[in-house]
Design goal:
Length: 484
């Protein structure tokens, strides 16, 4: 349904507009693997044409009815003034507003005191957890309602519904082959969409907890894979919080040297860096490397991955020469043990080309990427997220090598693909949009560059936070365009 249904969230008042999520709510959400980087917004005029408004309580319903009725009357007056025929606005207000808990089987769809979601603001984290349970219980009914109207195979309006019927369950086809279904969801992330993988794994996770128990290694593995695809979908900090919460369970249940424990540590170090703390990512990778070498051997693919990530964060932290030397050593080892066309070997070549450019050899970097692009596309496919990263770097270094117009054309081709595959506000899509704005400015069209860069800054400020290195980079670019 994702291509047909758009979902947003807003408050009816201004009390929290522009503020980050309440810490108690963040604690409840992060413990369950949900994003926690929301910023509160107020209901605006552009929201009023929605097909459905889901309200928490009767006060919200009254506010929404008043706003929609006012908008309907204003539209009717404008149509009358223009001599146009119309219905004065889309749909009667009352028909477009539902209480969230009216979708919950336990409330039976009837209006009563039980159909209200209480405001937990003046309570404790336990009150937020209770509200979360109420919201979660209503989701299957709400999704079913949307599917039935979006033509997505849901239960039609008026059809009988069994108590507790979950339209999200069909992915979990058979509890006897849960690991196979988990692997299928994992492949979904590799081949199609991180968001789809995270959604599928989010449906599988409670089934794993019920069938295997919350402390079984199969359940811990499923949690890790779920967090991984949340991160790949752009929710870096949410995933990092999840991995940090999972590590003590791995250490307690599997031991400090278990591959699962070490893999969780690897994820913590990597997403620490992606969240903006390059120095800490280097430190964590240095700590992990001897642990993996001791447990797995120095040439095991997982050990080489930690070697790779250590070199990567050294480069991101501002030392491309040291990173380049390390990547050359990694390339030799990977070529010997994994082969010259293995995906990991080509990833090392990608980093060598990038750090070659960062050490001052832009033309050589552009040539290396020119040679790498068809090889990586042959191995990964044209829409793999790592392939898109190689296309991004290729365009960047073509520009740095003295062909800004060619770089701009390459970025114009890449940007819509990244938006489609990874999402418009995914951090890596924003990397490409940033470069698009930069090379547009370099090519002399400041007026066209300005809105592109401003859009990137707004998105990075919201997605990554104002102090992330990438956000600061875009802010500096905007300042260079004469905007403060």
């Amino acid at each position: 349904m994702a291509h047909r249904v758009s979902v947003t969230s807003a408050g009816v008042g201004t009390w929290h507009t522009g503020k980050r999520i309440d810490e108690r709510a963040a604690g409840v959400l992060s413990a369950r693997g949900y994003p926690v980087h929301h910023v509160a917004a107020q209901l605006g005029e552009r929201d009023l044409d929605a097909d459905l408004f889901v309200a928490m309580d009767s006060r919200h319903v009254a506010e929404l009815e008043a706003r929609l009725e006012t908008a309907r009357l204003q539209t009717a007056r404008l149509e009358t003034a223009r001599g146009e025929a119309g219905d004065g606005g889309a749909g009667e207000p009352a028909r477009r507003i539902r209480l969230l808990r009216s979708f919950s089987p336990e409330c039976g769809g009837a209006a009563s005191g039980a159909d209200q979601v209480p405001d937990p603001y003046y309570g404790t984290e336990a009150d937020f957890a209770e509200v979360f349970s109420m919201i979660e219980a209503a989701m299957p009914g709400l999704v079913e309602w949307v599917r039935s109207r979006a033509g997505d195979g849901g239960v039609p309006e008026g059809a009988p519904r069994e108590a507790g019927h979950r339209t999200s369950a069909p992915r979990v086809r058979d509890v006897r082959n849960l690991p196979a279904q988990r692997d299928e969801a994992d492949r979904l992330g590799e081949q199609e969409s991180p968001d789809l993988a995270a959604s599928a794994l989010g449906e599988l996770l409670p089934v794993f907890e019920r069938v295997y128990g919350p402390e079984h290694l199969e359940t811990l593995t499923t949690r890790d894979i779920h967090a991984h695809w949340l991160a790949e979908g752009g929710h870096f900090r949410t995933a990092l919080s999840a991995f940090q919460a999972y590590l003590p369970d791995w250490e307690r249940l599997a031991g400090p040297d278990h591959p699962g424990t070490l893999h969780c540590r690897q994820n913590i170090s990597y997403w620490t860096g992606e969240s903006g703390d390059f120095d800490l990512a280097v430190e964590l990778s240095r700590e992990l490397l001897p642990m993996r070498a001791r447990a797995l051997g120095p040439t095991h693919p997982d050990t080489l991955l930690t070697e790779h990530r250590l070199a990567y964060w050294i480069g991101e932290g501002g030392d491309p020469a040291t990173a380049l030397a390390r990547f050359r050593e990694i390339l030799e080892t990977r070529t010997e043990h994994q082969g010259p066309e293995h995906a990991d070997t080509l990833t090392a070549r990608h980093e060598i080309a990038r750090r070659t450019g960062e050490t001052g050899e832009a033309e050589k970097a552009a040539e290396q990427f020119e040679e790498l692009v068809p090889r990586r596309e042959r191995v990964l496919g044209p829409r793999h997220i790592s392939m898109l990263t190689t296309r991004h770097e290729h365009a960047k270094w073509v520009g740095e090598a003295g062909a800004p117009d060619k770089a701009l054309a390459m970025l114009h081709d890449l940007w819509p693909v990244r938006k489609e595959v990874q999402g418009a506000h995914h951090p890596r899509t924003l990397l490409t949009q940033h470069e698009l704005g930069r090379w547009t400015a370099v090519s002399g069209d400041r007026d066209a560059a300005l809105p592109i860069v401003q859009d990137v800054l707004r998105a990075r400020d919201r997605v990554l936070g104002p102090n992330h290195p990438h956000t600061r980079l875009t802010r500096d670019l905007l300042a260079g365009l004469g905007v403060r």
